[in-house]
Amino acid sequence: MKERTNHVSRAKQDLLIIFVFGILVFFILAQVDLDETLDKIYYTKYKIWSLVETAVLFSFFGFAFIIYSYRRIKETKYALLQRAQADGMVQQQLMRIRTLQSIDSKILSDVPMRDILKTVIENVPMELSGDVVAIGVPDYGMSFARLPSGDIIEEDILSVSEDMAEWFEKQKETIAVYDLAFEPRVKIFSERIQNLKLASYLGVPMVLRNRTIGVMHLLTRNSKDFAKEDIDFFTALAGQAAIAVERSGTIEALRESEEKYRTFIETANEGIWTLDASGKTNYVNSMMAQMLGYTEEEMVGRHIFDFMDKEARIEAEKNLERRKQGTIATYDFRFSRKDGTDLWTIVASNPIFDKLGQYNGALKMVTDITERKRAEELRIEKEQLEYASRAKSEFLANMSHELRTPLNSILGFSQLMNDGAAGELNEKQKHFIDNIIKGGTFLLNLINDILDLSKVEAGKIVLNVEKMPVPAVIDEAITLIKEKAMKHNINIKKEIDPELKFIDADKQRVKQILFNLLSNAVKFSKESGGTVIISVKKEGDMAEISVSDTGIGIKPESMGKLFQKFEQLERGISEKYGGTGLGLAICRQLAELHGGRIWAESKYGEGSTFTFTIPLEAKKE
After folding, report:
1. How do beta strands 211-220 and 132-137 pair?
2. Interior CA angle at 100 toward 157 and 110, to 5°?
3. Are 343 and 308 in contact, with CB atoms under 8 Å apart?
4. Which of 68, 88, 503, 532 has the fewest CB atoms in 10 Å of its CB?
5. Closest alpha carbon to 568 in 604, 524, 530
């Protein structure tokens, strides 16, 4: 409206000039007879103009037109100049908008942070007269600079003083320097730009969420007063750069988080299984697929019911209904592997709902407890067997006690009859009595062995631990077997560590172990006789006692039968040498009851060595 008013005003001025010139020329050129006019006041006589007069009149109009045209041309030129300036400003604004859009597109794309920062300084327009543009983000350890050649370098090119840095940090405002020669707070230390003799400086803080995360620098070789619109644009660039840094940092953090999450999922010891609302598989990790014997690709898209039998499916349908109702649960469940075997698991199931509260599926954490389940079954079976064994042992112990009493009577009276207490016996009667005594003695020994073994297994034997004199117990055991050894032409030797005088043990039970081992050594000796050696030595905190013989030895395939209850190595040997098959089993139980162990070494045809250990000192409970 203002421009139109100015145009009308200028037109009125032009008409006024033309009118004044017209009046002036009219009075000069119009030849009017004044005298006659005065004489004849009511009559005016006009004179016809000559050619010269007409030319003068047209010259006047031409001159007036020239003046008018000149003013119009001048105005048009001024208007065109203003329009050109306006167009330039529009183009500049468009270019800056495109620059910001270009940076925005980089921000929105999945581009690394350093590439975005390079893009920011690459797009700083040249009309800002920025010979050098730099950006620094200390939190991420990144600094870039654009040289006059357009090259991008990754290094710090300048530093600012602490008060300037504090200004950027706290005030978050721009600092403009007209002449760097008089500004010691900005120091350029990059050799690549020191020779450029930079004059002016513009520093703009990169502010994000009211926090300065970096600074953008603009340096020119010519001294310059930075216009407000240039400062505003550079500030906008710094703001975009700050947003880019935040988004890129967020994306990188998210990517790292996703990578860690993926690594956790893929390396987790538990199976992870997600289902959609219908129960079909959305995702399984490698552990879950491995548990069931499938690949991940084979499982995805299949219904969870495909991995269980009919019985388990009935339970799974109930569980699925509970999930739809929002119930979180942990329970044991049995799946079926690809090979048809059972997979016992603990399943922690969590329902998934959308924003509207609609059931969207479930997330399941699955732990393989098949081995635990098998171990539990074995434990239960073992407990049942142990219970049955204890019941059997208690029964045998009770029965053995009931049998031993009448058997002692039978043996006692048989011995009396054999000694002639009831009168002299003939040879046939003596033979019968002798068989009764031998059979009864064997049966009594068997009952005693069964009784001892049953007591140990039933936990009814309590050791009477005392300071046991080792040499004395060895001598007592030898005394018990000496007469039998002499009959078989067996020479018994002993090798006792002189420093090993006492151990904490049950004297009677150690003597029982020694007697069993010595009896076997003598029993299984060769017909020509042999040697039995008892050796005692200290091994760490244990006393190691061995009984070695030069008898018939044991075959390698029979070594596994040693120390087993009611086991005879070979039928022919048991028939020839006799025995209940319980002696070594009792020895093992008694050694273990002391906290030691027993083992054997043998060469068939050359002899055997049986060794057991007893702790030097009993453990205090």
Report:
1. antiparallel
2. 80
3. no
4. 88
5. 524
| pLDDT above 70: percentage of residues in the chain | 75
pLDDT in tens, 206-230: 998 888 999 999 999 888 888 888 8
CB 287 within 8 Å of CB 271: yes
**Residue 212 · residue 172 · CB < 8 Å:** yes
pLDDT at 36 over 50: no
- Residue 200: HSE in the Cβ half-sphere, 13 Å Cα cutoff: 15
Q: Which CATH superfamily is domain 462-615 in?
A: Histidine kinase-like ATPase, C-terminal domain (3.30.565.10)
Buried b (16+ CB within 10 A) or exposed e, 459-497: eebebebeebebeebbeebbeebeeebeebebebeeebe
274: closest CA among 143, 184, 265?
265
- In this chain, the answer to whether the domains covering 266-368 and 375-455 adopt an identical fold is no
Give the HSE-up count for residue 196: Cα atoms under 13 Å, Cβ half-sphere: 23
State the average pLDDT over residues 45-50. 55
Chain centroid to Cα 204, Å, comes to 43
Read off the pLDDT of residues 260-300 as tens digits, 9 standing for 90 and up.
666 666 666 788 899 998 899 999 988 899 999 999 999 99
Residue carrying structure tokens 């006589």: 45
Written as six digits, the tokens of 97 are 């908008």
Check residue 1 and give its pLDDT. 47
Domain ranges of the chain: 2-86, 110-251, 266-368, 375-455, 462-615
Tokens of 91: 């183009």
Please give the Cα distance from 495 to 618 (Å, whole number): 24
Higher pLDDT, 241 or 297: 297
Length of the chain: 621
d(C-alpha 108, C-alpha 91), whole Å: 25
**Cα four-point dihedral sign 390, 393, 399, 405:** negative
Distance of CA 424 to the CA centre of its chain: 93
In what helix (H) or strand (E) does residue 445 lie, and over which residues does it extend? helix 427-457
Q: Which of 16, 226, 255 is nearest to 113 (CA)?
A: 255
Domain 266-368 has CATH 3.30.450.20: yes
Report pLDDT digits (tens) over 96-129. Answer: 566 666 666 655 666 777 887 888 888 776 656 7
Long-range contacts of 570-575 (CB under 8 A, 24+ apart): 573/524
Do 348 and 365 meet the contact criterion of CB atoms below 8 Å apart? yes
Which CATH class name applies to 110-251?
A: alpha beta
What gap in Å lies between CA 567 and CA 579, rounded to an integer?
A: 10
Tell me the mean pLDDT in the region 147-170: 89
Amino acid identity of residue 566, one-letter, is F
Determine which of 87-96, 357-366, 432-441 has the lowest per-residue pLDDT on average.
87-96
CA–CA distance, 332 with 3 (Å, rounded to integer): 88
Cβ neighbours of residue 617 closer than 8 Å, sequence gap 6 or more: 503, 504, 541
Reported for 2-5, long-range contacts at CB under 8 A and 24+ positions apart, including other chains, are: none
> What is the DSSP pairing of strand 359-368 with strand 607-615?
unpaired
The better pLDDT of the pair 298, 404 is held by 298
Is 375-455 CATH 1.25.40? no
Angle between helices 51-108 and 2-29 (to 10 degrees): 170
Lowest-pLDDT choice from 114-123, 457-466, 590-599: 457-466
- Mapping DSSP onto H, E and C, the string for 207-229 reads EECCEEEEEEEEEECCCCCCCHH
